[in-house]
Amino acid sequence: MAHYHPYLWPTNPPAFRDALATYLTEMTKLARRLLGFMAADIGDEDEELVDAFTGKRQSMAMHYYPSCPCPDKVLGITPHTDGLGLTLLLHLDDTPGLQIKKDGRWYPVLPLPGAYLVNVGDILDVLTNGAYRSVEHRVIPDARRGRTTVVFVEEGTVGGMVAPLPGLLKEQEPRYRSIELDEYVKGILKAIPEGIRFVDTLKV
Fold first, then answer.
1. 103-140 residue pLDDT tens
2. SUPFAM superfamilies, from UniProt (predicted)?
């Protein structure tokens, strides 16, 4: 726990650090299992996908979306795809709000008590050479109830590069060009105000 910044890793309440450390450990285990299933699904026998995420940067956030009497006039989160790798989201209540886009239409994703929502990010899209696609989503506030979620995010790279897994390219052509992680992050930040998905610029 020494590598966490003290301002982001408080000592009060006393049980916070241990509880969060335990939670992160279990979330890492869950992510490894999911990545292992994905690796098997795409024929990644050497589990390069699992290795791409092992020891990489992780982050966690707790989000609260207050109720809004005019939900049709605001957005809790604007439409986007997750720029990083793998997102695991836990609803702490039964308030709806998350929506995904498919074929030009928005569909609600209703909370399921005790279940995690697994969201594929753009990096995972690239790593799997498009086998797993990132999904555009947004959050709409509820008129009467607030919404609280806990989000766990993992980042993945191949030797510091955002690139298709080498093993997959033995039998298929790359659908994305390779780019260094730092340049990838810069590209995302530049693309956001322009309203474009940076990952789309990597397609070949």
1. 999 999 999 988 999 999 999 999 999 999 999 999 98
2. Clavaminate synthase-like (SSF51197)
CB atoms within 10 A of CB 89: 20
Task: Compute the distance between CA of residue 199 and CA of residue 125 in angstroms, rounded to an integer.
Answer: 9
Q: Please, which contacts does 114-120 make with residues 24 or more away whose CB atoms are closer than 8 Å?
A: 116/30, 116/88, 116/89, 116/90, 117/88, 117/89, 117/90, 117/91, 118/34, 118/86, 118/87, 118/88, 119/82, 119/86, 119/87, 119/88, 119/89, 120/82, 120/86, 120/87
22-81 pLDDT, tens digit each:
999 999 999 999 999 999 999 998 899 999 999 999 999 999 989 888 877 777 778 889
C-alpha–C-alpha distance, residues 90 and 92, integer Å: 6
**pLDDT score for 1:** 47
Strand, coil or helix: 191: helix
CA geometry: angle 85, 4, 19, nearest 5 deg = 85
The CATH number of the structural domain formed by 16-157 is 2.60.120.330
Rg (CA), the chain: 18
pTM exceeds 0.85 for this model: yes
Tokens representing residue 103 in the block: 């074929």
Give exposure, 18-33, as e/b (b: 16+ Cβ within 10 Å).
Answer: eeeeeebeebeeebee
